[in-house]
Specification:
mainly alpha; 2 domains
Length: 175
């Protein structure tokens, strides 16, 4: 019975991200390669969505860093499939995937509260920076923007090249 419950949990959480196309995949949970592939697809979908969040660069960087870290760990033996499924489900809910059809039904808005300038315990910030790898999306975008700026391109031209807003380019150049 436990196996059936685990299989159904896998299928339902994959439906949360991909909708009807993942119906009937419950038994594929027993195939580690298939599970790893599905986990990575779901996490990549979250990364893509997180990259569109209108918030400050530091916060977005933290979200992306954690998701990328989860993506790397998703196929490791020492994390149980149920743990990863629960984390994926939670991430899905936090990003607005609250139904089982692969679509966002709840728009989530992020905003910085007043008084947030104080970052708290600096040791925690240092730990986060150490944890954050240089291979994340924001870091690449910053390097790319810096390189394009050196070529004397305007924020507008850079925003067209990167298919993003001038406001986002401004945020990337501040840091």
């Amino acid at each position: 019975m436990e196996k059936l419950v685990q299989n159904m949990l896998f299928e339902r959480i994959m439906e949360q991200f991909f909708g009807a196309r993942t119906r009937g995949i419950a038994t594929s949970r027993e195939n580690n390669r298939e599970v790893k592939k599905r986990f990575k697809e779901a996490i990549r979908k979250l990364i893509k969505h997180a990259n569109t969040i209108e918030t400050n660069i530091d916060y977005k960087e933290k979200i992306l860093s954690q998701l990328e870290s989860l993506e790397k760990k998703a196929g490791k033996e020492y994390l149980s499939q149920e743990t990863i499924l629960r984390l994926l489900s939670l991430c899905g809910l936090l990003f607005g995937y609250d139904e089982f059809d692969g679509k966002i039904h709840t728009n989530v808005y992020y905003c910085q509260r007043s008084g947030k300038e104080y970052t708290g315990f600096s040791g925690l910030d240092l730990l986060r920076k150490m944890e954050s790898n240089e291979n994340n999306i924001i870091a690449y975008r910053k390097k790319l923007v810096k390189s394009l700026k050196e070529e004397k391109l305007s924020n507008y031209k850079i925003s067209v090249i990167l298919n993003t807003s001038e406001k986002e380019i401004g945020k990337l150049t501040k840091k």
